[in-house]
Backbone:
């Protein structure tokens, strides 16, 4: 005997089957779908790297003017670690041209390797060959370089001779170019106050300078406004170290043989006064600017008397 479903239940089953047959197939939620694999994005090349490489290529080819095209008209070049002062400064294309022409005349060759590139700042490891260093038997010399770019042009180039290269260059250089005689003591009375002036991409002090032991006041006359920040530092050095060692060491951390007496940051166009205490000398002054973070001038050794 067949069981007969009530009329109302039969109608409900028919309606449910019809709705199921007409409903669209289920679609997985977007959140549960796995997106197709995408190839990794290629890093955007820094166009400033090409500018630097082309500049080096032109100079290696002996094309002074072609190499200078990649510099801004008011570019600054700072070379750290060479006697007698530990820093050479070339301001503007006319002065850089003299350096570049001397390089080409002496069969200069330049090899570079980019260490890092962030926006307008590029750090480079370099080595060079030059007739003079070839004759001394110390070529190639190695450097740590930094470039700053503005509107696609080199605006600042800083180069530090590495410590190992200084160690082999200094004695070889001293054999053919004897060190300058030590300056005779100044007849001027020792001072407890002096002024450091920042202008035209470097710094200067009143000279001659002889410091009196004790508290010393430093007045900073900030006339330069081309960079974001500036700084003034003063050091005592251990026996056996000099201005060449100090300037090479300005690339990196403060070495253990340098005693920092004063370090102050100054904003563009701002003038200020600071004090430090010195017991003995000599004292060495190094001025800085950034970006990039590099020394732009120095003074020393400054004698200290009781």
Residues:
């Amino acid at each position: 005997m067949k069981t007969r479903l009530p009329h109302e239940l039969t109608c409900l089953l028919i309606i449910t089957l019809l709705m199921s047959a007409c409903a669209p197939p289920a679609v997985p939620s977007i959140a549960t779908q796995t997106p197709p694999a995408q190839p990794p994005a290629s890093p955007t090349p820094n166009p400033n790297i090409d500018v630097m490489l082309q500049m080096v290529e032109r100079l290696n080819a002996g094309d002074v003017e072609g190499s200078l095209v990649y510099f801004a008209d008011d570019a600054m070049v700072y070379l750290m670690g060479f006697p007698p002062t530990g820093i050479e400064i070339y301001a503007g294309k006319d002065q850089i041209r003299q350096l570049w022409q001397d390089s080409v005349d002496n069969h200069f060759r330049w090899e570079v390797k980019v260490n890092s590139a962030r926006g307008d700042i590029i750090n480079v490891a370099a080595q060079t060959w030059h007739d003079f260093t070839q004759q001394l038997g110390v070529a190639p010399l190695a450097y740590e370089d930094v470039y700053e770019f503005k509107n696609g042009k080199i605006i600042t180039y800083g180069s530090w001779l590495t410590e190992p290269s200084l160690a082999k260059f200094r004695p070889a250089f001293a054999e053919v170019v004897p060190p300058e005689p030590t300056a005779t003591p100044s007849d001027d009375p020792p001072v407890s106050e002096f002024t450091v002036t920042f202008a035209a991409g470097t710094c200067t002090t009143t000279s001659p300078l002889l410091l009196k032991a004790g508290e010393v006041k430093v007045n900073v006359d900030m006339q330069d406004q081309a960079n974001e920040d500036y700084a003034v530092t003063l050091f005592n050095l251990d026996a056996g170290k000099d201005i060449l060692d100090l300037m090479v060491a300005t690339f990196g951390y403060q070495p253990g043989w340098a005693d920092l007496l004063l370090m102050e940051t100054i904003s563009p166009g701002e003038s200020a006064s600071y004090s430090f205490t010195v017991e003995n000398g000599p004292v060495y002054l190094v001025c800085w600017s950034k970006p990039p973070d590099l020394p732009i001038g120095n003074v020393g050794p400054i004698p200290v008397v009781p």
